Amino acid sequence: MNSPVDVSCLCGKCDSCMILNHSLCTAGSAEAMVQLNRISHRRTYPRGSVIQAQGEPVDLVGNVVEGVVKLSSMSVDGDSHVVGLLFPSDFFGRLFSDESRFSFEAATDVTLCAINRLALERFLADHPVVEHEMHKAKLDELDAVREWAAIINGHTTMQRVSTLIYVFSRRSENQFPKRGANEPPVIHVPLGRRDIADFLGTTPETLSRNIQTLSRSGIIRIIDSKHFELLDVSELIRCSGESREDLNRISAI
Which residues pair with 72 in a beta bridge? Predict the structure, then answer.
């Protein structure tokens, strides 16, 4: 992989980007990134808005810059199910496909670095190093999804809840100012209880009971419905039934 991009060759849009060195922008040469800068643009979406609906033509792809995007799938009987979450630096949209297989919704206020799909496909054809890095990232994501599917199918509800809270803790690391050495990190929970329960294959009531159990055990402290303090990461890992290494892979950091 190439060294971090020299931001002196980019416009203000990119040199202030918080994911500049944590996305596909890490792979290309400075000249390639100038070209990518020309075809990309920022878009913002308020919480709850649909970025791209299931079945719609895929016009835009790119990276999440700020916020969390929720992926949902509509079943034949009309029920919507949460099937994935995208965090800052994650790639959204589907390349080489005319139709979106999922619905992409802003779970929080979201900023995207958006690129016309056909323009990015042409860019990747001209820059195989970037295309290679993107394929590798998608394979890593696929491995994480498979590991997550194994957890959903073979673990207790407490193990699933603990695993997801750990994932949220890893993904929250860059969303809050650094705290003092003796202050526990804050976990941002981007989804409501009903969406989380749907994602974990349980009910909102069972989810709430498990969160309260973690709180009473001194593993987390509930600040509000969207924020927890993580008091005992080792115990949270034990409750997940996974190793720290496996949890980090699932977190897809």
Answer: 82, 103
C-beta atoms surrounding 45 within 10 Å: 18
Q: Report the CATH number at residue 191.
A: 1.10.10.10
| Structural domain harbouring 212 | 155-251
Q: How many domains does the chain have?
A: 2
Structural domain ending residue among the three candidates 93, 110, 137: 137
Amino acid at 102: F
Shared domain check, 176 and 109 = no
Condensed to tens digits (0 to 9), the pLDDT of residues 25-76 reads: 766 677 888 888 889 999 999 999 999 999 999 999 988 998 889 999 987 7
108 within a domain of the structure (yes/no):
yes
- Rounded Cα distance, 141 and 214, in Å: 28
- Record the pTM: 0.79
Residue 165 CA: distances (Å) to CA of 53, 59, 111, 188, 224:
27, 33, 23, 9, 14
- Determine, yes or no, domain membership for 150: no
